[in-house]
Write a structure and sequence with these properties.
Layout (H helix, E strand, L loop, with lengths): L2 E6 L2 E4 L15 E2 L4 E2 L14
Antiparallel strand pairs: 1-2, 1-3, 1-4
Length: 51
């Protein structure tokens, strides 16, 4: 989180901290009362090579 704060599934996420979502989780609530700036990084799994 770069600036501000958000609520994600009932958990407060604040600025100057980093957060990691566990694999295969669903995040249906994501909101901010005052606005926020954040960076999202996606990591895609590597495909297995053909045998």
């Amino acid at each position: 989180m770069v600036e501000g704060s958000v609520i994600s599934n009932g958990k407060l996420l604040e600025s100057d901290r980093g957060y990691i979502a566990e694999p295969n989780t669903v995040h249906s609530e994501f909101r901010s009362k005052s606005g926020a700036k954040f960076i999202v990084v996606f990591v895609f799994p590597k495909e297995k090579a053909a045998a």
